[in-house]
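Students often ask why we bother encoding 3D structure as a string. The short answer is that it lets us treat folding as translation between two languages. Here is a chain of 342 residues written in the first language.
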Amino acid sequence: MHLGVDSFVAAVTDPTTGRAVGPEERMADLLEEIETADRAGLYSFGIGEHHRPEYYDSAPPVILAAAAARTSRIRLGSAVTVLSAADPVRVFQQFATLDLISRGRIDLVVGRGSFTEAFPLFGLSLADYDELFEEKLDLLLRIRESERVTWSGRHRPALTGQGVYPRPLQDPLPVWVGVGGTPMSFVRAGLLGLPLMVAIIGGEPRQFAPLVDLYRQAGERAGHAPERLQVGLHVFGFVADSTKEAADTVYPGWHEMFTKVSRERGFAQPTRAQFDATSGPDGAFFMGDPDTVAEKLVRISGQLGGVDRVSIQMTNPRLAHADLLRGIELLGTEVAPRVTTA
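And here it is in the second language, the structure alphabet:
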């Protein structure tokens, strides 16, 4: 099992001083976080995509290019690219260019996103939510297969044999499908033989076992080799020297984030009891000291029939930069060795 970090590049208020960290400083901190992950031996670092005032990750390829120039080993990728609201030609060109800059260290994770701001921003209708993704994924994979593409669809002008350049160093460029809890999304990824990145943000991870089984069964029926059907998890969590310290450090920012989302979506307000329950042995949050987090990772992997990669989303708006650096270091130097040898 490979371990990594995902970041949504949240705007941060320093929890000690109450000072708002400006966007320029936040970007500098982010690059230091990625460099720390590289030095700590983590496998990957992903950047999300949002178009909201509380995040600075609306242009992930730009951030990833800066990270590629500052790192030497760690894989870099999206978490996720909102393909439904993008042009697959430009997405491929950007990530192929990143692959060249990084010398073959790029993963492209595509999905529909859990927020909807990108759709009206780019003049798209939420009524086309499913069709947009299916059509654009088809085009992206066609471009990946061949530099000259003939294709037509409803949501983008046709291609009539034009070339798409540059071509990436990796052949093919790794394309993962990011999914939530929709069975058809798991089946689609399996039929296409694409690796799967499952976002688990609530409930119990073991409840996703039937959906992961659907994915593997669909892939097997479509004739794809088992090694192509990789499973990754995108989860929320944090590592500290003690489990109590991890929870106490992360809770204020978690509460702020989920209070805002709950108000927008009409959910009940989040509570500390809810947070603690979700951080428990069977919950969706991977929170604690290195032994606790490692044991949970191994257990959940077994419940899901084997997991190839886990990316932990560790950032939040009330997390001090020094604490985040420490969490990344512990994940790489203490948790990852326990997981790899388990």
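Translate back mentally: DSSP finds eleven helices and twelve strands in the chain. Keep this in mind for the problem set.
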